[in-house]
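Hello K.,

You asked for the raw outputs rather than the summary table, so here they are, unedited. I folded two proteins back to back in the same session to keep the settings identical. This is the first:
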Amino acid sequence: MKKKLIVTIVGARPQFIKAAALSRIFKNHLEIEEIIVHTGQHYDAMMSDIFFDELDIPKPTYFLNVQEKFHGQMTGRMLGAIEDILIKEKPDALIVYGDTNSTLAGALAASKLHIPVIHIEAGLRSYNRLMPEEINRVLTDHVSDLLFCPTKTAVANLIKEGITKGVYLTGDVMHDAILENLKIAKTRSGILQKLNIKPKSYIYATVHRAENTDKENNLRDIIEAFSKTRETIILPIHPRTKKMLDKFNLVMPENVKVIDPVGYLDSLSLMSNARKIVTDSGGVQKEAYFLKIPCLTLRNKTEWVETVQDGLEKLLV
């Protein structure tokens, strides 16, 4: 029997985590062969390579190394490169995750070649078109053939837009990843000992979105808020955030312990042992929800509305 060929598109931290859960299943499924295409959207070794190693994801067959500064240029380069791969490999379907430029580029390339598109994490909406991720997720949903929704709200969002065919309420693959990897993190991660911190004695924070980092006043306000807490804050520094701190000549206050980006197991350990979480990341706010850690999200809208409705998350308004 000829194997079904699946091409998986990844490019950012949350996608590596989600893809790991499915790749393990594909590896043991005799009728499916998977080819992984890494766009290079997150190119820092601590935000990419370490996830493949820790989560035992098969090494990408293709690494595109697309690192353009502007969204249009990045998406365009990815689109052309992915199209070339799809023409060569002739897969039976393509899988994309979430809402990154990599997601949109993969979905557009496959749909134009009449290759079925599977969108995992379909139907999410923040209804904030100023976020590039919102544009990506809306367009991806409208060219997808199978739409796997993590929540009932996501299904309802699609119905409002006239998308009913191929829609499935599947639950969240990120939850599967946390359940599987949290036990591993407890035995393998030594990050708390390395940083000399005790459980529930700190706030875990991540800051990376352009609207928070690329505007000096916004970044300055975040730094000031961190200072006013007077609590210990653990902040894995995103390359973009580090770059903008240097550009604006800004310095984090003494109560903020800035560390290099961490892998998934260390991240799980830091999140699960935090007293609170402060983030502008959609993935981290959702992980906080699954871990039942109170979360303050540095945004005024979120696509994960259930986390706010259930009272575990608050938005800046």
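The second followed immediately with the same parameters:
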Amino acid sequence: MLNKLRKLSIHVKISGKVDISPDPADNFLIEMAQAGNADYLVTGDKRDLLNIKRHGKTRIVTARQMVKILKL
């Protein structure tokens, strides 16, 4: 499974310049989504990340919401 993920993954570099989350420890996730041009960031962090809802083109959603989006 890890080898398949490596083949599908996009490696991004971050600078630490994103500062929008109430929890500074979460900013790297938002920056990685931005650098990877991600459509979605899936999280269970109800207190901080989910309250942001969107950063640029990236929608911040729960796993349950993502399942509905993917129609699984």
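The radius of gyration is 13 Å.

Happy to rerun anything if the numbers look odd on your end.

Regards,
P.
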